[in-house]
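Run log // design_07
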């Protein structure tokens, strides 16, 4: 799988080499030895909310700045996105992006099939202000926390709402570099 020059420069030669080897192993495990040549992995600096995405029409995977900031989960993210490409080729009529076919392909790579990476939110720069401004939405009952660029009053805590509580979140602005 050709990693673009921009991506290779951003992640470094050693990391790129390790990822290429892993991708070759996954392709063999999925019985799709031509997959690395068919799909291109590219850097898209405009991806802000996603770590990566698979674009089936162009047969490419795009990774964003959040992918670059990952220290130890780059292979897991690529396995996730490449499994979409493999599922698209092996099961073209399957409609669920994270269905059973996709899950079995991810498990074959040695990773658990998860849809979202869990971890600390990375502050983003608000245009024009020059400083990171984020809003923390916290449930006062179970302490569940969500982050956003703006206050979202429509959000509710799913766990507390399911238990019959109102699930209203407390919104605090957190600004500056942390």
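design_07 sequence
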């Amino acid at each position: 799988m050709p990693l673009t020059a921009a991506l290779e420069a951003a992640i470094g030669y050693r990391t790129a080499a390790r990822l290429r080897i892993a991708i070759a192993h996954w392709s063999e495990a999925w019985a799709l030895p031509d997959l690395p040549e068919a799909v291109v992995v590219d850097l898209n600096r405009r991806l802000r909310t996603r770590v990566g995405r698979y674009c089936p029409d162009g047969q490419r995977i795009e990774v964003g700045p959040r992918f670059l900031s990952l220290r130890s989960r780059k292979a897991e993210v690529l396995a996730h996105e490449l499994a979409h490409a493999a599922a698209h080729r092996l099961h073209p009529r399957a409609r669920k992006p994270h269905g059973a076919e996709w899950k079995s392909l991810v498990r074959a790579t040695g990773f658990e099939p998860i849809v979202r990476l869990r971890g600390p939110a990375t502050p983003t720069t608000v245009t024009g202000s020059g400083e990171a401004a984020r809003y923390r939405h916290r449930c006062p009952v179970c302490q569940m926390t969500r982050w956003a660029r703006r206050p979202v009053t429509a959000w509710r805590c799913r766990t507390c709402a399911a238990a019959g509580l109102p699930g209203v979140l407390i919104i605090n602005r957190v600004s500056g570099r942390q």
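Confidence is low (pLDDT under 50) at residues 120-131.
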